[in-house]
Design brief:
mainly alpha; two-stranded antiparallel sheet; 4 strands
Length: 164
């Protein structure tokens, strides 16, 4: 019996799907992806097909491993912009947006990274606001500084000298 992957077009016998190491490793890597990414990953793999050719499993493994590494970083960078924090939910939405735009024959994850970087702007702004609020609150709650007695004496001396 021959099985065909509906997303990437890879074909193989049922035995090959369980015996081939590249297939097992690819499935294992897919299962390690966070849920929002995993739900979109097979469809995303389909974008890497070249024309009507099936996507080889070794290539699929490389793509999924690269995707797993991107998601695990926790940040995303795009061409000269700042590095932005990102989470699995945004990666999932970025894959969804990539799928919706429908590019075919992708060679790498750059298109996805660009979409993710643009979507991560809101998260980066929120995190910066939280950091700033935390910094302000910390300053408000700090103990007031006590002026040393020697400084007080020096100020009193200057006041007398200037005639106050």
């Amino acid at each position: 019996m021959r099985l065909v992957c509906p997303s990437c077009g890879a074909t193989a016998s049922a035995e090959a799907w369980s015996n081939d190491a590249a297939i097992r490793y690819t499935i294992d890597a897919l299962l390690q992806l966070p849920t929002p990414v995993r739900l979109q990953a097979l469809s995303y793999l389909g974008l890497f097909r070249q024309g009507t050719k099936a996507l080889p499993w070794r290539r699929a493994l490389k793509i999924v491993t690269g995707l797993k590494d991107l998601v695990a970083e926790g940040t995303v960078y795009w061409q000269g912009g700042e590095t932005r924090p990102i989470n699995a939910e945004i990666w999932g939405k970025a894959i969804e947006a990539t799928l919706a735009s429908g590019p075919k024959g992708l060679k790498n994850h750059n298109y996805l990274r660009k979409c993710a970087w643009e979507m991560a702007a809101d998260l980066a702004a929120k995190m910066e606001n939280d950091r700033e609020l935390s910094r302000r609150n910390k300053q408000r709650h700090e103990e007031p500084r006590v002026m040393p007695e020697s400084a007080k004496a020096e100020i009193d001396k200057l006041k007398k000298q200037w005639g106050e």
